[in-house]
Amino acid sequence: MGLPPAAVATAEAEVSEEERTGGAATVHATGRNAFSFPAANLPDAERTRFVIGNSFFRRNWVQAPASTKARDGLGPLFNARSCGGCHVQDGRGQPPDFTRGLSEQPVALLMRLSVPGQGPHGGPVDEPTYGGQFQNFAVQGVPPEGRVDIRYTTVRGRFADGTPYELLKPDYRLSRLAHGPLAKGTMLGPRIAPQVIGVGLLELIPAAEIERNAREQAAAPGPIKGRVNRVWDAPSQQVLIGRFGWKANAATLAHQTGAAFRDDIGITSTAFPEEGCTPAQKACAAAPRGAQGKAPEIDDKTFRDVVFYQATVAPPARRDARDAQVLKGQQLFRQAQCATCHRPSYTTAGALFPPLSEQVTSRALTGQTIHPYTDLLLHDMGEGLADGRPDFLAGGRDWKTPPLWGIGLIPEVNGHQRLLHDGRARGVLEAILWHDGEARDAREAVLRMDKAEREALVRFVNSL
Known about the structure:
Order of helices and strands: HEHEEEEEEHHEEHHHHHEEEEHHHH
Number of helices: 13
Number of strands: 13
Strand content: 5-15%
Largest sheet: 3 strands, antiparallel
Helix content: 10-25%
Radius of gyration: 21 Å
Shape: globular
């Protein structure tokens, strides 16, 4: 698959500093393909590799045995047939529209499972019958683990000026379980697929800067006290600072990608060589394997190409950064203390973590002043958003501050703006109104804003 039409995206030298979200890697892009361009400063010699990684990211894997030896091994259990099945157009997933009935099963919204306790590296303990992730699809001859059912209730409130609002509160249930009931005390964690842009730049934010965020918040007055998550990184076999995932439970793109291949698509790799079949799942264990029965099902070179592709997907430039309403919204964003957690800027340094540092370029990504608007820390966001599920040092009410860059382009790329970890929020303002815990003061500040101020705040966030 080739690159999107070049006429739609260009690197513009005249773009101002605040508009260059990814430094020299930034592309000026809007529309359906806004999240699918390579870093603007990526050397020509490496763009072919970007295209190869893109192909394996987007195209479906197939059930083994198959004549397509480079892409067989789907499942036996899976949530999607490709990375792009969840990250459509490299963008954000959304929950299914259950108002149309219960026939539609989620693809880009998955369910993590765990039981109380800690695993050998301090992470969650998998549910013994269904594993660490609930897979509602399976290859022929293997039963899916079951169905995901979602019901919403309406939460109503009012702004200080009397304007009413409504939020959707989801309730998740697993039904038609193929192997009997879940273990007692099983915890369920919904996760929506986020957009892929700029993730290589996030990996190159120095660890010292993330730790600095935590120190400064700890020393400052007020309730905002973000914490670093420290997690086991399977590719490098060491504990590192978490930066990816909704609870910062993955330290590197290599780990995040390997875990997603195994858990989401059922594709094994060097770092994740075992299928996700539990002892109770006999048909899963007996199903044919890809790569002619050899492990891993995705070879190291192809795996590195997919990681390279994700690492070099460019963040789009900001829009309307000098607009008067946007500038007013930026001022309100700071006044409400949103910028404490959504830290605007960093300078990237170093190389991507081993064992990929020699195979995945960082020359195009290092030394860039970027504007992701995140501190990459964990924050207690209150009971309303809690999933009750710990993940390494993250508690059941903790969530990582997500980056905000590109958020205003999600409707153009994906046709919706479902936000937060499970897509419950139908836009920026609803996402803010779900904030609680450490972010309660920020939410209360927004509740006191009048209509013009709320519109300016949303316009600013959507300009990022």
